Amino acid sequence: MGKWWKNLWFQDPKAKDILINDTAVRIRAGILILIPIFLSYTLYDAVFGSRWIVDSNSVHDTFETDFDEHIIYAGQMIRKTYDYTVQSWVLVYAFFEMVASMFVKTSYLSPTIWIASFLARNKPPVWKPLVKKRFAWFIGASFIATCWVFFNPDKFAYFVNGIAHTTLLSTSEQYLPYWIPLTLVWVCFGFMWLEMALGWCAGCQLHTLFVKLGILKEECEACNDIFSPEAQKMREKNRS
Asked: In whole angstroms, what is the distance from residue 186 CA to residue 106 CA?
């Protein structure tokens, strides 16, 4: 119990093949799932919501109808503008959480890892390789970066144009289709829910598939030996 603050969710932070406590990982997924829920509401309102704000006190009947016999109303309206400052900073924090959890030293900078490790301190640990989880978090970071570009197309365009010394991207229009971040947010929500509720990691499964196909060469010994008798004895020893 007293080791959680020193090792966090790691079995041994100095080991060659790092193992992390999947119980804490699932708790952390339950905390971070609030981010895609918040962003899904924002994207739904931005994509499917009204583009206009109507002053209800000014609406009145014109006593006219269109060709479909719909009553025509007149009123004062102003164009709705969106400020994505909060959403952008939420995405920056989420990106930090994904990147920080990929490495042992940076994991100690993550507030959610501290919270999850504390909440899991009295529960039996379930050790799983960090390599596969790192690949899953890399996918999550890619999703987050794409959503950030959607909310900040001008900043991204200025950055790319500055690096390339060109005007390749427009700084005055949204060039990323709305369905891309909308889909990614719900996919991210689904993956995190599967991790939280069922302990099933989609990124880990993709990592295993890519290793079998030869696309990835980063196959750790712990991935193969985690269910060996020696590993079972080590887990029982840590529980006691």
From this structure: 27
Angle formed at CA 215 by CA 213 and CA 220, multiple of 5 degrees = 90
CA terminus-to-terminus distance, the chain: 10
Phi, psi (5° rounding) for residue 123?
Answer: -105, 150
> What does residue 172 show for φ and ψ, rounded to 5 degrees?
-125, 10
What is the per-residue pLDDT across 124-144, written as a single tens digit (0 to 9) for each?
Answer: 889 999 988 999 999 999 999
Write the pLDDT tens digit of every residue in 41-52: 888 877 776 666
Cα torsion at 39, 41, 44, 47 (round to 10°)? -60
> What whole-number distance in Å separates Cα of residue 190 and Cα of residue 200?
11
Q: Are strands 127-129 and 71-74 parallel, antiparallel or unpaired?
A: unpaired
Q: Give the distance from CA 148 to its chain's centroid.
A: 11
Name the residue among 26, 20, 8 with its Cα closest to residue 235. Answer: 20
Tokens 């206009």 locate to: 52
CB 131, CB 218: distance < 8 Å: yes
| Rounded Cα–Cα distance for residues 175 and 153 (Å) | 7
144-200 pLDDT tens trace: 999 998 888 888 888 877 887 777 776 667 777 888 888 899 999 999 999 998 888
Do 155 and 174 contact (CB within 8 A), yes or no? Answer: no
Calpha distance 132→118 (Å, rounded): 23
The pTM of this model reads 0.77
